[in-house]
Write a structure and sequence with these properties.
This protein has 2 helices and 47 strands. The protein is mostly beta strands. The chain has 6 domains: about 15-180, Galactose-binding domain-like (Jelly Rolls, Sandwich), CATH 2.60.120; about 195-280, Sandwich (Immunoglobulin-like), CATH 2.60.40.10; about 290-380, Immunoglobulin-like (Sandwich), CATH 2.60.40; about 395-470, Immunoglobulin-like (Sandwich), CATH 2.60.40.10; about 485-580, Immunoglobulins (Immunoglobulin-like), CATH 2.60.40; about 595-690, Immunoglobulin-like (Sandwich), CATH 2.60.40. The strands form 13 sheets. A 6-stranded antiparallel beta sheet has the order 4-3-6-11-8-9, with no helix packed on it. Strands 5, 7, 10, 12 and 13 form a 5-stranded antiparallel beta sheet that branches. Strands 28, 29, 31, 32 and 33 form a 5-stranded antiparallel beta sheet that branches. Strand 28 (about 420-425) and strand 29 form a beta hairpin. The longest helix has 7 residues, at about 15-20. Mean pLDDT is about 90; it is low at about 1-45 and about 530-540.
Length: about 700
């Protein structure tokens, strides 16, 4: 730093301002230093009262050139670089014949080659631990310069610089600088001291720290790390700081660290003693493989899983998770293998028999609790043997004129696979419903008890609801008379038609056939098959009866769900009279033919054919001659005669024949005769059919 020169004329005194300019913040080597506060100018000047900061020179002023007696003043100087001109170096000192002494003691680390450059007018001497290294001790009129190379031993040493001015201008400079070229400096730095390593489990980081080296030519530090499983150290980082933070792999492994100091010539110190840390293990095992290869054919009762074993050295075992959704969450609720990891690579369980798809994944867990991602998914469809649990709490029954109305509420969220409900009356199952059921099969003036049970999609039954008892009064009013009844004779019976019943509780119709005898009509209900044909009403419906020219009456009544109906032929019921057609042949069939019996049937109406069957035994043939065949005849009304429909005789062992040319919607009469070897035919056997 260039000192501030006094502004007085030649021969000027050395002022306090000039002295203050020389006490400055400076860099000695690579170390930034400053005097202590009590060492500033104006502080006490006795040597015992002055304490200088480390690496800062203590400076003593003498009013003589022999450094004898008590210093006239003592302070601190961070750098020796002053130019006092011809003035006094401090107040109270002479402008000529004075001396100044600087001393500093410091740690030079490993030591090594240094240069001591000096400039002085007048004399200067430099001592290292009391040994003179520079000696320019004479009164000169110009500034003299010199640089002396010195090898400084390692450790702490004291520098002392003595300067004297005899007469004239006074100026002085001194520095001590490490020589850093690689061809000169062969001295390695000392290994860093105070090396420490601490591991933070929470942050999973290693904090390294060490004390600063004392070498003035220090360049930086190199940090190294190795795994406990190897002896090879790996370079980790370079830093100029005295600390370093490392984030080693969180695998639970032990890591060792050490540090070297590097100087500007490239010399490396010995390494520090190694420090070790054991990291937190946060590295999860690999996901198990082979789980997705497990499956069963059909519905599953027992699930058996197996998978490939993991190879991690710190493996603690496996966890098995199950869910009814394919993306299986790794939650405690889905964990089915228990709180502790299982050791083997297999697992067996009986999943809940709910009919759901059961999805399984497996994870691997290490000894530090790290859990792998989920494996692939195995899937199984289970049997549903789990009954619903839902019971309606608002089951109600309301009696009505035509039946009992049952109601209750529910929704599928209350039981996921709830399908509907079975309805029971007096202990018997009478139907299924989903919240509304109409029981119309009740009898009037009867008491019934009802309850319902939920059923799932495969028929599992839930618990029964509360019972409800109902007194059914019922309907005693018959539907009104049927209108528009007509009867038309046709070749195969009587066709009937009528208007639809307007009764809201209509159930079916009853058709009655009346005959007149002894001055009154008596009615007989036609058979059930005809009644079922007539339930639609309003359509032409056929009562298949033999058209033999009889005069008859028909009555039709409507029946409601309670069985109420008007009496046929009374109370204004619909009646109509009709004379049947007479479809009988004009030629009667005599009895006593050799064929024991003949039957005609229209079994296959959709094929438009009539099937004939008969029985014949040669042993009972009154002719005493065995048949060689049979002939079939059919009555032809237009010709008024039986016409043969078999061109050649049927085989002698035949017992049936299909007439595929029979006309529809008519009454057909048939005959069968036995054909003998001489071509003659027996007496006929007959039958008829309504087609």
């Amino acid at each position: 730093m260039t000192p501030v020169r006094p502004t007085t004329a030649p021969g000027r005194p050395r002022t306090a301002a000039a002295l203050a300019a020389g006490v400055v913040l400076a860099t000695t080597g690579s170390m930034l230093t400053a005097p202590t506060a009590e060492a500033a100018l104006g502080a006490p000047t006795t040597a015992t009262a002055v304490r200088c900061a480390p690496l800062v020179f203590k400076r003593q002023f003498y009013a003589n050139t022999t450094f004898s007696g008590t210093p006239a003043r003592t302070d601190c100087d961070s750098r020796i670089s002053q130019d006092w001109g011809t003035g006094a170096p401090a107040s109270g000192l002479p402008g000529n014949y004075f001396g100044v002494r600087w001393t500093v003691t410091r740690d030079f680390g490993s030591g090594g080659p240094f240069s001591f450059p000096v400039e002085s007018r007048d004399g200067i001497r430099v001592y290292l631990d009391g040994v003179r290294k520079v000696d320019l001790w004479k009164n000169v009129s110009t500034t003299q310069q010199k640089t002396v190379n010195v090898t400084v031993p390692s450790g702490r040493h004291t520098l002392r610089i003595d300067f004297v001015n005899w007469t004239g201008t006074a100026n002085v400079k001194f520095d001590y600088l490490p020589r850093t070229s690689a061809d000169v400096d062969k001295v390695a730095p000392l290994a860093p001291t105070g090396f420490a390593a601490a591991y933070d489990d929470t942050a999973a980081r290693t904090q390294l720290s060490w004390s600063a080296n004392q070498e003035m030519d220090l360049k930086d530090y190199r940090v190294y790390r190795r795994r406990d499983s190897t002896t090879t150290w790996s370079y980790l980082a370079t830093t100029t700081a005295t600390s370093y933070t490392d984030t080693p792999p969180a695998t639970g492994e032990t890591y060792h660290y050490r540090v070297r100091a590097i100087d500007k010539a490239g010399n490396r110190s010995a390494p520090t003693a190694g420090k070790s840390v054991t990291t937190a293990d946060r590295t999860a095992p690999a996901a198990p493989t082979g789980v997705e290869d497990n499956w069963n054919i059909g519905l599953t009762t027992t699930v058996k899983l197996s998978w490939d074993s993991n190879s991690e050295a710190d493996l603690a075992g496996y966890r098995v998770y199950r869910s009814t959704t394919r993306s299986v969450a790794l939650t405690e609720a889905n964990l089915v293998s228990g709180p502790e990891p299982i050791s083997g690579s297999w697992f067996t369980e009986t999943p809940p028999p709910t009919g759901d798809w059961a999805y399984y994944v497996v994870t691997a867990v290490d000894s530090h609790g790290n859990e792998s991602p989920a494996s692939g998914t195995a899937e199984f469809e289970t049997w549903d043997k789990t009954a619903p649990t839902f019971v309606p709490d608002d089951f109600k029954a309301v009696d009505g004129e035509r039946g009992v109305s049952l109601t209750w509420s529910w929704n599928r969220e209350q039981d996921r696979d709830l399908a509907d409900f079975e309805v029971y009356r007096d202990g018997a199952h009478i139907g299924n419903a989903s919240g509304v059921f109409e029981d119309t099969t009740v009898k009037r003036s009867t008491t019934y008890t009802y309850w319902v049970r939920a059923t799932d999609e495969v028929g599992n039954l839930g618990p029964a609801s509360a019972e409800i008892t109902v007194d059914h009064i019922g309907d005693y009013t018959a539907p009104g008379p049927v209108t528009g009844l007509t009867a038309t004779p046709v070749e195969n019976g009587v066709r009937l038609a009528w208007d639809d019943s307007p009764a809201t509780d209509f159930d079916h119709y009853e058709v009655h056939r009346g005959t007149y005898a002894d001055g009154q009509w008596s009615y007989t209900e036609v058979d059930n098959s005809v009644r079922e044909d007539l339930e639609t009403g309003g359509d032409w419906s056929l009562h298949k009866t033999l058209p033999d020219g009889e005069h008859v009456r028909y009555a039709v009544v409507a029946v409601d769900k309670d069985g109420n109906a008007l009496a046929p032929g009374r109370d204004g019921t619909a009646v109509t009279e009709v004379t049947e057609l007479d479809m009988r042949p004009a030629e009667a069939t005599p009895a006593g033919g050799p064929v024991e019996w003949l039957e005609a049937h229209d079994f296959y109406r959709y094929l438009s054919r009539v099937d004939l069957r008969w029985a014949y035994s040669p042993e009972t043939d009154p002719s005493g001659t065995a048949a060689t065949g049979f002939h079939i005849y059919r009555w032809n009304h237009s010709e008024g005669a039986y016409v043969r429909i078999t061109g050649t005789p049927l085989d002698a062992d035949a017992w049936d024949y299909s007439d595929t040319t029979a006309p529809d919607n008519s009454t057909l009469y048939y005959r069968i005769t036995v054909v003998y070897a001489d071509g003659t035919e027996s007496a006929p056997t007959g039958d008829y059919v309504l087609t």
